[in-house]
Amino acid sequence: MRKRSKLKRYEYQEIFEKYFDLGWSQAEIASYTGRSTSTISRALKRDLHPSPFLTTFEKAMHAFECSRARMRASRRRKRLKSDRIRKIVQFLLCRWEWSPESISGFLGEHGVPISAKAIYNFIKFERPELKKYLYQRGKVRRQRVRHRRGMFRAGVPAKRSIHERPELSGDGDWEIDTVLSGRSGSGAVLTLRQLASKKRFYFLLPNLKASSVMEILFSFFQSLPPYMRSTLTADNGSEFAELYKLEQ
Fold first, then answer.
1. The model scores a pTM over 0.85
2. For 145, which DSSP code?
3. Separation between Cα atoms, residue 195 and residue 197, nearest integer Å
4. Could you tell me if 80 and 119 are in contact, meaning their C-beta atoms sit under 8 angstroms apart?
5. What's the burial of 238, exposed, middle or buried (CB within 10 Å: 0-12/13-18/19+)?
6. Helices and strands, number each (H, E), in the chain
7. Where are the alpha helices (DSSP H) in the chain?
8. Which residue of 98, 118, 131, 248 could cross-link 102, Cys pair, CB 3.0 to 4.6 Å?
9. pLDDT digit string (tens) for 1-39?
10. Residue ranges per domain, the chain?
11. Superfamily grouping for domain 162-247
């Protein structure tokens, strides 16, 4: 069913005149205007000025302005609820040149369902200066060489096998990974996933140095109680070469 537009100024005036001056019922006004009875009822009751001294026209204009104020307020509300998600969206859009559709797909795969439309609205109403980073229609983007990650295989104290991880995951069992940029040297997104709850946490990395990763991990795990700090599973990326320090 097609969604009807908001009531116009003249419609408010017409509804109020027929209801208050001519004594029409809400059903009669709905039939005459082609609007639903519930729409007529909301227009008459939601923003009706309580003063008995206003004219019908003044009451109609008051209701119309209240409706417009609600619409403006709804456009100002934050489309992306979390400050961290807003920073990640901005990072992926500006630094990696991802489209809102790609960002939506990435976040959805990592347990944060956000539609591309919500990201477009965030840009339109909250951060219009980011519009310049949106893909331009017909413009071909240059394919970039993926940044190569270093690998560590030996020489790291207390390196353990994934087979030592408990079969049943508890609150203290985590997985860590990084999502790399399509351009060299532009940072990464660090993801932490709690295996039991599937809850994910995201952090922006300025680079792929192990020290940068450890700075975030020390801060994160120190904020958790001991029972939530049991195991941490990672791949062989060089940015994870200092994870053994978490046990010290």
1. no
2. P
3. 6
4. yes
5. middle
6. 8, 4
7. 9-16, 26-33, 37-45, 56-76, 83-94, 100-109, 116-121, 210-222
8. 98
9. 445 578 888 888 899 998 988 999 999 998 998 899 998
10. 9-76, 83-133, 162-247
11. Ribonuclease H-like superfamily/Ribonuclease H (3.30.420.10)
